[in-house]
Design a protein that fits this description.
Layout lengths: L1 E10 L2 E7 L8 H4 L7 E7 L9 E6 L1 H32 L5 H30 L4 E7 L1
Antiparallel strand pairs: 1-2, 1-4, 2-3, 4-5
Helix pairs in contact: 2-3
């Protein structure tokens, strides 16, 4: 995945880069006529190519890391929700509680909320390891 970014600010080997988000249709507004207006996002990343403020840079995404992060963000909450529902359903059924499905769903939601704390913990550990999913490749002319 390659994109173009605009360097807004640099300091201490880091750069603040503005990247235009690609819409779900691919960003070819002239071809679809949907006239969607996708806002830009600002990303802070290492500046190994010494890009300066005002430069346009090519940003390359590391596919393996992007897939890994997507799995973390989507699968941990999903697995926790299903796990909470199944475990509590078995527990409430064995205790002969009426409306065990409703209570199991509530427990599943509690597990889901708990999973966001797990994802946040994983995110903080990734930040400490300084694993970046994107890197600046070159300054565009």
């Amino acid at each position: 995945m390659e994109q173009v970014g605009y360097v807004r600010k640099t300091s201490n080997g880091m750069a603040e880069v503005e990247v235009r988000r690609i819409s779900g249709c691919g960003g070819g507004c002239s071809s679809c006529g949907g006239s969607c207006n996708m806002p830009s996002i600002v990303v802070s990343m290492e500046n190994p190519i010494n890009a300066k403020v005002g430069d346009y840079v090519e940003i390359k995404g590391k596919s393996k890391k992007i897939i890994k992060y997507a799995l973390i963000v989507y699968m941990i909450p999903f697995v926790m929700l299903i796990l909470g529902i199944i475990l509590s359903m078995n527990l409430f059924q064995s205790m002969n509680i009426a409306n065990y499905e409703n209570y199991s769903f509530i427990v599943g939601l509690i597990f889901l909320v708990f999973s966001f704390f797990i994802v946040r913990k994983v995110d903080n550990s990734i930040k400490k390891k300084n694993e970046n999913a994107m890197e600046m490749v070159r300054v565009l002319e």
